[in-house]
Amino acid sequence: SYCSKKIPEWIESPYKKFDERRFIVGVGTGENTKISDSSARNEILKQIKVKIKEIVEEETHLKSEDKGKSVSIQEFAQRKFGESAEGILKGAIIKERFYDSKNKVWYSLAVIDKDEIAFRASEKLNESDMEALGILKKIEREIEEEGKIDYQKVLVAISEAEKIIENTAENKIILELLGRKYALISEEKIKDIKDKIESPDIKVEGTENLLEPIGEIEISAKTYSDSKPITGLPITVRINEVFGRKEITLSTDSKGYASLSQIVFLKPGENQIKIVAGKKKEVVFNVKVGRGSFRTQTDFNFLKEKINRCLTDSGIRVGENIDEKASDSEKPVEIKIIGDIKSRVNYSGKDFAGEDIFISETSINLDFRNPKGEKLYEKSFFGRGIGKRKYESILNSLENALGQMCEGKISITEKELDLLIRNLNL
């Protein structure tokens, strides 16, 4: 009876009647049953939050040693688990009530059956797992039938499967809070498929020797997994040239091949060209380059100095350093570099202090030609600068453009800058 004079045992020892391995129990009090029922459920929530705190602290320790990151992980985990805790609380049932007439207070006993909630959550997870597996097995059948792996189609299938898993993620969290585990077969399947397409086997062939620093190289990369070619796979080719790094993105064809034919300017000696297939697999292709000599022609000494520094830092001899007494067979072929500069100044108005603001854009173009005057290669650099005076904005844009060529700062005299401004009618 609610109004029995004898205080029930469950008020002082709720877990004496309920095995804590299976049940979560909470006792609440209040001036009426509505308040005492809510208080009992809140006691259960407190116990769940203790479990959340333990899990969050463990995840935080595993994922990051960095304090800043730890805070963000804790906040995310608290939100994630907090929402699921409310889901668990919906399963709470008021098993008992007692009214203490002497103290005029109601007691309520709320109980959650962990087995029952875990069973329902597991059923929902199993349904989602089977649905996601169906999508993944379908794409695997298509791969076997076609004898090749369509990278884009596989990504779409994985995305669809992951959305299904994500939509039922709360049930997995509920099981974790209840101290139960559920391994999704589809998650392991997704991991296996991703490993195959993001870290594929790759075979690279191509130009292994260049007689001179400037020349055409050809590279062919074949990608495959389980002996099946991967089509539509992104391939990134990274080439460190004398005047900066070049990055080229390709895509494999219907036979799993990606080919590149490119004019490059490489350093003498061994050059490592990196080929990245998918997201993880990286291979290095070596190209051996012969020596060469270059002579710079430009109206601006600072540009000539910068070009020559880039060349000598790369182990290339410039015209001034060539042994003129050497025999013709020992002399490398000399390449002429024609340097040109273009600038444009825009008046942008005034800043908050009422002072003038100028914006300048400068481009530097290098034209490489052989002794016959034929163009071999070209390279352009772009810089943008802001200043309170036209002179200042041009200088900033010019220095930014020069800074892209190679490391090391070049000083530009006021006389040289005046010459540039006059020549370009700025």
Would you spell out the secondary-structure blueprint of this structure?
Layout: H1 9-12, E1 23-30, H2 33-63, H3 67-89, E2 93-100, E3 105-113, H4 114-146, E4 149-150, H5 151-167, H6 169-177, H7 185-198, E5 201-206, E6 209-210, E7 214-225, E8 228-231, E9 234-241, E10 244-251, E11 257-265, E12 269-277, E13 281-289, E14 293-297, H8 301-313, E15 317-318, E16 334-350, E17 356-369, E18 375-387, H9 390-403, H10 414-423
Parallel strand pairs: 4-8, 6-13, 14-15, 14-16
Antiparallel strand pairs: 1-3, 2-3, 5-7, 7-8, 7-11, 9-10, 9-12, 12-13, 16-17, 17-18
Helix pairs in contact: 2-3, 3-6, 4-5, 4-6, 4-7, 5-7
Question: What does this protein look like?
Answer:
The chain has 426 residues and is an alpha+beta fold. It has 4 domains: 9-115, Roll (Endonuclease I-creI), CATH 3.10.28.20; 128-198, no CATH class; 201-289, Immunoglobulin-like; 293-423, Double Stranded RNA Binding Domain. Helix content is 39%, strand content 34%. It is built from 10 helices and 18 strands. The strands form 4 sheets. Strands 4, 5, 7, 8 and 11 form a 5-stranded mixed beta sheet that branches. A 5-stranded mixed beta sheet has the order 6-13-12-9-10, with no helix packed on it. It has a 5-stranded mixed beta sheet with strand order 15-14-16-17-18. The longest helix is centred in the first third of the chain and has 33 residues, at 114-146. The chain is elongated and about 110 Å long. The termini are far apart. Residues 67-71 have low confidence and may be disordered.
